Amino acid sequence: MADDFTHDVFLSYSSKDKAVVRAVAERLQGDGLRVWFDEWGIRPGDSIPVKIEEGLEHSRVLVLCMSAHAFGSGWAQLEAGTFRFRDPLNTERRFIPLRLDEAPIKGSLAQFLYINWLPKSRKKEYAKLLEACRPPANPTTVEEEATREQVAKKVIQLDYKATIRAYAFSSDGKRALTGADDKTVRLWDVETGRCLHVFEGHTSVVISVAWSANRRHALSGSGDKTVRLWDVETGHCLRVFEGHTDEVWSAAWSADQHYALSGSSDQTVRLWDVETGRCLRVLKGHTGLVISVTWSANQRRALASSYDKTARLWDMETGQYLCVLEGHESGIWSAAWSADQHHAFSAMKMAASGYGTCRNLLLGCERRKPLRRPCRPCRLRSNTRTPKSSSSAIPAPAKPAYPCGLRSTIGSPATRR
Predict the structure, then answer these.
(1) Considering its fold, how many domains does the chain have in total?
(2) What's the pLDDT band for 71 if we cut at 50, 70, 90?
(3) For all residues of the chain together, what is the average pLDDT?
(4) What backbone phi and psi angles, to 5 degrees, belong to 348?
(5) Cα distances (Å, whole numbers) of residue 371 to 15, 176, 366, 375
(6) CA-to-CA distance for 358 and 210, rounded, in angstroms?
């Protein structure tokens, strides 16, 4: 069951307390937790009861926001969702009451120790809430040493002759996917090194592979200019995403598994609806092949790195790019977000020496020249207005001037609009 948790925290509350709870959700997410909050988890047209049930099923911690509003007419429904988390035999889940006001606590909930979220107590109590919601601690030192010994004693060699171009481990570490020059995606048992399935359908080298969060599906990008969606258990191709005009270097799932991003040698990033296979946006602006794409945890931003020596930060709601991140001396081969979404790192390979460099892209500013005193990271947003985007090329905004005289990176990508 623990492996099926796609969210750390589910927030249950009365709609009349939405403003208070939204602030809690954003703060927990900013500290790296995966939060299920109805505004973020339910899209227009979704069945609300079904989506709530899915969210509860795949969340490790339930935070029940108790208030006079919550104890009103909708209380029975809110309380019903707590039972699986209050079961003392279900040790993988946790139930945390969060008291928003001084309304008397109803029934059996009085026996649970709550976190006091009255305005005057929030600053002090937040540390308790964050600690209670965090995933279990890492293994002890003794367990880590035992793991190291096991790793050192066992090496699995795959019985496979093709050149592997991409690989990805499942979240439980028991399976691995590979993409190779023989035009196939393969599923492997990590413990035995046995090939469990061969996914056939691509007509050229497979360059990228990515697991879905629930480990039931996978994406692959290929030199045949397509992205394919696979059923991991059967090896069947469920859908082919077509539209790129050159090889696909990368593919990435959104956190809710409804969307996918792909980056291609055609210098574009495409946003796909996984359910329908329809291309929702074409993000243009790079002048070299797009090697990697990655989502922010809240799905509002995407980071693409390219052979044009830049990374671009995109707003996924509008399709507009927020900033061009410059400074590398050659193509950027990979980029990754920090857990709090305030920072990202990028890496390039230096052709002459073979050594790599890594930069913290979103920290604040890069200096053009030494300053007498170090400035604080700007964290400023451009005030330049850009036209509304379409599925075609997105016009580049003019470079804003910054008071410190440094080259801009970007403000906090976690900032919610």
Answers:
(1) 2
(2) confident
(3) 79
(4) -130, 160
(5) 50, 49, 11, 8
(6) 23
Q: Is 148 contained in some domain?
A: no
Place of tokens 């290929």: 222
Tell me: do 228 and 371 sit in the same domain: yes
Domain interval for residue 124: 2-133
Which tens digit of pLDDT belongs to each residue from 195-233?
A: 999 999 999 999 999 999 889 999 999 999 999 999 999
- Residue 26 and residue 233: Cα distance in Å, rounded? 36
Q: What is the pTM of this model?
A: 0.55
User: Is residue 99 classed as helix, strand or coil in its secondary structure?
Assistant: strand
Q: Residue 86, exposed/middle/buried by CB under 10 A (0-12, 13-18, 19+)?
A: middle
In angstroms, the Cα distances linking 67 to 13, 54, 81, 82, 251 are: 8, 24, 16, 15, 43
Asked if 252 contacts 230 with a C-beta cutoff of 8 angstroms, the reply is: no
Domain match, 186 and 295 both: yes
Token pair listed for 275: 């359910």
Specify whether the CB–CB gap between 340 and 31 falls below 8 A. Answer: yes
d(CA 213, CA 201): 23
- Both structure tokens of 216: 């039931």
CB 141 within 8 A of CB 149: no
Q: Give the range among 60-74, 241-255, 349-363, 383-397 with minimum mean pLDDT.
A: 383-397
- Among 35-39, 105-109, 270-274, 332-336, the least confident range: 105-109
Q: Which two tokens stand for residue 283?
A: 């993000």
Do 243 and 203 reside in the same domain of the chain?
Answer: yes
Which pair of structure tokens corresponds to residue 335?
A: 């980029």
Hey, what are 358's tokens? Answer: 């890594």
SS3 state at 364: coil
Q: How do beta strands 7-12 and 35-36 pair?
A: parallel
Question: Which stretches of 181-326 are assigned E, i.e. beta strand?
Answer: 185-189, 195-199, 206-211, 217-222, 226-231, 237-242, 248-253, 259-264, 268-273, 279-284, 290-295, 301-306, 311-315, 321-325
